[in-house]
Design brief:
mainly alpha; Retinoid X Receptor; two-stranded antiparallel ribbon
Length: 419
């Protein structure tokens, strides 16, 4: 049976935002080392006033060498860098979590035992994991067909032919401890590339059409490079044939942009980040300067807002969704997309991360709500495909007709299918 390797490579270039030591991941919502993680867990609920400052000034520079000498400034630094004490589990919460994990292991063990017994009676009577997984999503596809599309934005209708009691009995295994570790590592890697104060909403310089096009390409190129860096941390992606990696990047990268926008979106002024209104308002000018209606931009924004509503901007869910989509053949809706050399490896990776997303969603929302949310998510993905296809065609046409192809990065030429 195909076994998935542990997903994330150990990174040696992540720096603790508190003291500058090597970070081990995101702890209590901030990138930090093991020492600062333990320090914050012990001291987060203490009053800063009760802690003394080394110099009495309250302005000590927290470094690897001095971090143990001034608890007050170190704790203040933890808070200023975004650490959250509400993320610290109490002893009771830890016990409940431990109990839940143990119950999940027991359920998994019982199902495994039952499966072995059934196999001894008739190997033809049970589905393989991949077959069952496909069957589950066939049911979701059926839900799409049975929906009242006019009322979709307000209501989700469950197919009455699906027995929810049976779904509960036969559902995919709950999250195991290893699953949680893998998801945590994926999220940490995702945040290391995308939770960065330097990432802005990339306002467009709309002085004229040519300047606007070049400005947009520079912003998009920065996002694309971050996506590639994230995917290079995933063993299943890194182990693919070079040609397959190139095809997936060329044809699947642009449809991922709405997910990035979803993650950095802030509800202030319906903008990606809280920037000055003047900068935000320049973005639509690109389409106006190009003699186009604003329909493409509105469609794109609607997709982003739908993703925000469904995913709640959960970084774990979004990072898993990115992995599912990058491994999706045909996502670009381009009939000229070449065949992969090892499509089986790509399908296996996609199935694995889809199953992981499914289990994570059940753990987060419960089964019935997961069916509703995943159904909504599927329809948004269909809209996402259409929106990014139109966007690609728009920009490709603009760069060619304005004779500015040679002024954009080679990566963006590839992503826009110009080269």
């Amino acid at each position: 049976m195909f076994r998935i390797q542990l997903v994330i490579k150990k990174s040696t270039d992540l720096t603790c935002t508190i003291c500058g030591d090597r970070a081990v991941g995101f702890n209590y919502d901030a990138l930090s080392c093991a020492s600062c993680k333990a320090f914050f867990r012990r001291n987060a609920h203490q009053s800063l006033e009760k802690l003394s400052c080394l110099t009495g000034q309250g302005q000590c520079s927290i470094t690897y060498e001095i971090r143990r000498k001034c608890q007050r400034c170190r704790l203040n630094r933890c808070f200023s860098m975004g650490m959250r004490k509400d993320f610290i589990l109490s002893d009771q919460e830890k016990e409940r979590r431990k109990k839940r994990l143990e119950e999940n292991r027991n359920i998994s063990s019982k199902r495994s035992s039952t499966s072995d017994t059934k196999n001894s009676l008739s190997s033809n009577n049970i589905l393989s994991n991949s077959q069952y997984f496909s069957q589950t999503f066939d049911e979701i596809d059926q839900l799409l067909m049975d929906m009242d599309t006019d009322k979709f934005d307000n209501n989700i209708f469950i197919n009455e032919n699906i027995n929810l009691n049976n779904i509960k009995e036969e559902s995919l295994d709950k999250l195991s401890f290893q699953d949680e570790l893998i998801i945590e590592n994926i999220q940490s890697s995702f945040l290391s590339y995308f939770k960065n104060e330097e990432i802005k909403c990339f306002p467009i310089d709309a002085t004229d059409c040519t300047t606007a096009l070049i400005s947009w390409s520079q912003s998009a190129n920065e996002i694309a490079l971050r996506f590639i860096s994230f995917f290079r941390q995933i063993d299943e992606f890194e182990s693919l044939h070079n040609d397959d990696r190139f095809i997936l990047i060329k044809y699947n990268l642009l449809p991922l942009f709405p997910i990035f926008k979803c993650f950095i979106y802030k509800p202030i002024n319906n903008s990606c980040l809280n920037e000055e209104n003047e900068k935000i308002e320049k973005n639509p000018q690109l389409f106006i300067l190009s003699n186009q209606t604003n329909e493409i931009r509105r469609t794109f924004i609607n997709v982003v807002l739908s993703l925000v509503n469904i995913t709640e901007q959960d970084p774990s869910l979004l990072s898993l969704l990115l992995l599912i989509l990058i491994f999706s053949q045909g996502l670009s809706m381009n009939e000229n997309e070449p065949t992969l050399k090892d499509s089986l490896a790509v399908n296996r990776a996609q199935n694995y991360y889809t199953k992981l997303l499914w289990k994570y969603s059940i753990n987060k929302w419960g089964e019935i709500q997961t069916y509703k949310n995943i159904t909504q998510l599927l329809t948004v993905i269909f809209r996402l495909q259409s929106a990014t296809k139109k966007m690609r065609e728009f920009f490709s046409s603009q760069y060619i007709t304005s004779n500015t192809v040679d002024k954009i990065a080679p990566l963006m030429q590839t992503v826009l299918h110009i080269s």
